[in-house]
Amino acid sequence: MTFKTALLALLLTVPALALSQAQGGPPAGGPPGGRGMGAARMYDPATVVTVSGSVVAENRVARGNGHAGVHLILNTSDGQIPVHLGPASWVDGQTLKIATGDEVTVKGSRTTFNDKPVLIAETISKGGSTLVLRDPRGVPAWRGQGQGQGPRAGGK
What we know:
It is a single chain. With about 160 residues, the protein is α+β, with helices and mostly antiparallel strands. A 5-stranded mixed β-barrel has the order 1-2-3-5-4. The longest helix has 20 residues. Helix content is about 15%, strand content about 40%. The C terminus is likely disordered.
């Protein structure tokens, strides 16, 4: 391989890898169907639980590059737990709106983030409507691979 060919290959590969990482694709040599960055990578189908409670707060957490994630604080019978929903730009575009004081049911992966227990939401339901955030494997809906593009009536 000539120097020019190697340089061209490098110039074409690096942006593709960067774009893959930014879009939540698998890292080079990683498992297919990578689930993205941050909390999304920690989704574990083996730890899925369903909890109900009252939303006591909504937080917008900066993720860099002008992006923010939506986190809820849910007051359950077992105490408060942070719930990671997804990117604010995607969550805000959905029909189902969640506000402080709402009674909701969240199905998601119970895990630890920054040494604290959290729930990474797969679905969130309110008043007979369900917003699907991730598929059962944890693949985010905003990545174009998940199941819901918005709320659906009823269901789990």
